[in-house]
Hints:
Blueprint: H1 8-143, H2 147-163
Amino acid sequence: MDLVKPELGLIIWATVVFLILLFILGKYAWKPILNALNEREKKITDSLELADLTRREMENIKADNEKMLKEASIERDKILKEAKEMRDAIVATAKKSADEEGRRMIASAKDSIEKEKSAAMAELKNLSATIGVEIAEKILRKKLESNPEQDALIADYINHLNLN
């Protein structure tokens, strides 16, 4: 049972060795270990702060991107609206121009038809008059083949001319 019950000398030597070991560890090992732990803690803290800063910057960038997307969408809608208005204006102008051109062409065609109608009527009158004169000439030649009839007609023309 001697192993279970320590003696006074063993306790003293164990205490002395423990204190020497504690002194050596405190002087040479604990300071570097504590420094390493402090540096690691500082790196972890800095990394967490950097991660937090990066997260905030990402949120800001995301908010800016969303804002730019909204602005781009508004600008796109504005451009599309302006393009539609321009298209409608161009179509309206083209329709108005086409209507005016159509009316002008119809008026021109009506004028042309009237002129051609007048020319045709004048030609028809001239042709009728020419045919009438030719027919009258043929009839008069047949009727006036005798001399006494021609003399009577001439006398009648002369009398008639003198009266006017």
